[in-house]
Design brief:
By secondary structure, this protein is mostly helical. 72% of the residues lie in helices and 2% in strands. The chain has 8 helices and 2 strands, in the order H-H-H-H-H-H-H-E-E-H. A hairpin with a 6-residue loop joins strand 1 and strand 2 (164-165). It starts with a helix and ends in an 11-residue tail after the last helix. Residues 182-195 have low confidence and may be disordered.
Length: 195
């Protein structure tokens, strides 16, 4: 799924219905910041909000997931593409979560015995220090690998060019600045569909 394309579609359909972000958010029982986040492609509606959102915008879930209006001829093809994409994304996330858990388990299995041995058995202090350092290195290395796996699990892949985008701290800071700007601007309802 292309979150940016879906976000632009949500914005255009909201404007077509002449809703402000605030009005749509009130109808859905969420904050207008959430609508803004979706429209900028920085998030996606929760499953529980898909049908209410689609009902308010007079679109289908298939159109929402496609990020565009879908003709009757293309409806089945787009539905199948969306299902395959959702299943693939779920499988990828599941694999990364399992890998992260395996790394955590291996780190525990490798590091804990080193710490236990260094404290339980009588030995020279320099050997004790070496065991503690090795155990610490294993833990730090394991945490680093788990962080990389978790970061990749939060990556977005463009379905067109297969480029992976991993949000970084600077992206979150830019989002906060954009939110602050949007809060200071008053949005007027638009009667024209903007693509």
């Amino acid at each position: 799924m292309d979150q940016i394309m879906i976000g632009k579609f949500i914005a255009s359909e909201r404007k077509r219905k002449a809703y402000t972000q605030k009005q749509l958010s009130e109808k859905l029982g969420i904050s207008d910041k959430t609508i803004s986040k979706w429209e900028r492609g920085n998030g996606f509606p929760e499953v529980s909000l898909l049908l209410p959102l689609c009902n308010e915008l007079d679109i289908t879930v298939n159109e929402l997931l496609s990020g565009e209006r879908v003709s009757e001829e293309d409806y089945r093809k787009k539905a199948e593409e969306n299902m395959v994409n959702l299943m693939r994304e779920a499988q990828e996330s599941k694999k990364k979560i399992i890998m992260s858990a395996m790394v955590a388990l291996l780190v525990l299995v490798a590091a804990v015995p080193l710490f236990v041995i260094s404290g339980a058995i009588e030995m020279d202090n320099w050997i004790r220090i070496v065991l503690i350092v090795i155990g610490t290195v294993v833990v730090v290395f394991g945490i680093a690998i788990a962080c990389v796996l978790d970061r990749d699990a939060g990556a977005y892949e463009c379905p067109e060019c297969n480029t992976r985008f991993v949000p970084e701290l600077k992206d979150w800071n830019e989002d906060l600045l954009a939110l602050n700007q949007e809060e200071s601007e008053v949005e007027e309802p638009c009667q024209v569909l903007q693509l």
